[in-house]
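Interim report to the steering committee. The following record documents the input for Peptidase S9 prolyl oligopeptidase catalytic domain-containing protein (563 residues).
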Amino acid sequence: MESESWLGTVAAECWDKAPMRPLRPEIWREFSRVADVGSNAKQPLRYAAALDLWRRPAPSLQSANCPSSTAGSQVKWVAHESATFLRAMLIATGSTAAAEAEHCFSEFRDSCAMSGQTSYKMVEVLPGASPRSSLEGSDDGAEPLIVIHKRDARACLVACLASFCGLFLILLGVVVFVGRNLVSASAQGSVNAQRAQTTPAEFPRYNSCGGCEEGNKSDDELRQCIHPCYNLSFVHRWERYNRDHEFRMVYFPSRAGPRGEVPVNISAWWLPAPPRGGKPAPRIVAMHGVGANCNHCGVQSTCYLLRSMGFSCLTPSARDAGLSGPSSHPDILTWGYDYHLDTLGGWDYAVEDPDGLLDGPLPPDQVGIMGFSKGAYETAIAFGLEQRIPGAWLDSGPYAGLFGMIVSTVAPYVGSFFGDILARGVFASATFFSGGRVDVYDPLQLLSNCTAGEKKRQVLIAHGTLDDTVPTKYSAMAIEVLSGEPRCYEVRTYTPPAYCNGASHHQEMWEFPDDTRGKLCSFWSRTFDRDPALCGLGKLPSFQVWEPSDRLPPGSPRTPSFV
């Protein structure tokens, strides 16, 4: 049997210079089978070259045969598809196989723009020997005739990104990233975005309400940054009231955690209203939203309006925020798991006054709760769990938990069907990274499982119709659920078109302070069985620049109907 000659190659895929490694013996046997060569072949195999393509054959492989200019020779590609790649082999037979193989392989090289990156050489192989055994001891360092790619991470990545697999992995990465960020305390913003040490007397001038930057400001700077949303007299009166009236920082324990976690030491500003008729004023525990603390702008400005009408405020910083103690998960932002326990701890403290710092204890029906944004979500959970709380003011919420928030964010872009699928993926990621600390409690489910008492509990849902942070449909859902239980709740709403210097999330307390003050007086007077005349609304200064039914600040979006 005449000796056989083979064409070796050092090749790379069209899109990558991947390193090579010798063909394993089992692959060599497969090659022989696919190429139909051996002792019974009509013509001995003269030259061959092979390379692996990651299921992406080059254009030159679309035709079955390469052009052949010499009679008696045949040069063709034999494609063998395995589970992981497409192997393309150049088979040359006949008396002029070397020239035809070189011509055809050069065409393939040029089609891949591989000039200078592909080479091949003649390798003598003894009859009956494998390529590897025939090359042992060779002086020219030639590789065995057939080589396959070492599939390094970069080659896999590039090939995968050009396929459906790549799109899937990109989508999966986004889903995991978003889910992780939703429960990452750092990703959601600093919980000390407002300085917790800033006193209530300093806060009106230091605040970021209405688009101002955080930090102490002169009157001219304030006048410029609050324009045209509200006037400077509101800040002056707020500042003067807090300087002239008592405030102090107090501390109390939260309630114990759902998995047996020990109570967390919670800090709060105590902002009392003067007692009337020898009795302490009714108290309201006001909870901030995500990324904030007790010096939350909505909380502090609302508490000024409340105090001016004779209602005291307790403004806690949630665990891991402000001057409050750390939780068992300081790097994880939970949803419906344990922040409501800080609100309940504040309510317990306001009712019992265990340290004697609040002018004495009060009956439970004289202490209410309120929350803003995520604080409203957690406050609604607290209200559902503690049946003794007489009333809750929920501003920009509650929404349908983390899962509901994800659905509402995604669905408008991809539709309800795909939105639900993506939301479930993001929620699964958030659940994993939070250790299962999401949506343990559903506020709407808790509130719907009510038990009628001697007196209806009071609920007010406040939500700006222009809010682009929390969809108004969630407040509409809460209104529907609560209104469906007339034995348990008396429901009110407050839905002004608040919009101030590009911000639309709970802005009503400084853009419409007169209207907000009237709503606060009416709601809390009803909750505490208190005469609304005690609010003294007729004697309080007017601050409001804009009217909801009239013109609004420049740049305000068109006012939609409340969903």
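The two ends are 88 Å apart (CA to CA). The committee is asked to note this result when reviewing the revised timeline.
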